[in-house]
Amino acid sequence: MPNSCKWLADRYLKSAGIAAVCIDADGQVTAYATVGIDLPAGLVCFACLRGDVERLTAHARRCRGDQATVAAQLKQLAADLYIGITPHHLAIDRALAAVDIVHNRMQQMQASGGMKQVNSAFKAARTVTPSLRYRDHLDAFKLKLVEEIAAQMT
To answer: Mean per-residue pLDDT for 63-79?
Structure first.
């Protein structure tokens, strides 16, 4: 996966307010207030909204057993507490889908002349900051798009 895709997917998850509750091989529960697409190997992780992660984790730390047992208990706890959780790999899939939307939108803009506004904005920004690179400007524009998508999803 290209770094730009990973970077945008990570920013999508952060912008959407995604956190994670993870279970290690020993059944220990850890909360991640912000989460990207990469997590340490060997964890079973569930994504949830940042505002729910501490409450879910506090209850989940009472769970006992191996990784699979604690994962099943965590799912039940989340349901009992009315907290939506999603396997982390599905949250990653959604983030990558958002990145695809951004890339498709950029291609559409290039094909339809929509990049004229982006280029004009770059020229204006360059007069203020002469060292601004076009690539950095495009990255900022893509970031704005992915943040808009994240805001629509939450």
So the answer is: 95
Give the count of beta carbons closer than 10 Å to the beta carbon of residue 69. Answer: 13
Per-domain residue ranges of the chain: 3-92, 98-153
SS3 22: strand
Whether 40 has a pLDDT exceeding 80, the answer reads yes
The answer to whether 63 and 42 have CB atoms below 8 angstroms apart is: no
pTM above 0.90, yes or no: no
Predicted pLDDT of residue 140 = 87
